[in-house]
Write a structure and sequence with these properties.
By secondary structure, the chain is α+β, with helices and mostly antiparallel strands. It has 3 helices and 7 strands.
């Protein structure tokens, strides 16, 4: 499934932190979304709009240019095979509403 250019990936900042109880409580008290967890780490999502997102068009102002950050160019990257082998749903690593889905045959998001 191709990108829907919904802009949702540009409205979230995801990062990996340790998944200790203290860390979970710290982020929960701040209202941050706990997306996924595996092997002592978890992904936390912050609702934070990128400055380069055009709200009217739901498109990055750098979308067609060579100044677009590498991380944005490669989103979504293929998930770690170790996470999948451990039972993590690779589609949970995507921003909610994203047009991509994981294809287990190619082991890529399509």
């Amino acid at each position: 499934m191709p990108c829907k250019q919904c802009g949702e990936c540009c409205r979230h900042l995801d990062f990996v932190v340790d998944s200790s109880e203290n860390t979970k409580e710290f982020y929960a008290r701040r209202g941050l979304l706990h997306v996924a967890e595996h092997g002592g780490s978890m992904i936390v999502s912050v609702r934070q709009k990128c400055d380069y997102l055009d709200d009217q068009k739901n498109k990055c102002l750098l979308h067609d240019g060579n100044k677009k950050p590498l991380w944005c160019k490669v989103y979504p990257t293929a998930p770690d095979e170790e996470l999948i082998a451990a039972g993590m749903d690779p589609d949970k690593l995507l921003v909610k509403g994203c047009g991509f889905k994981y294809d287990p045959e190619t082991k890529k998001y399509v």
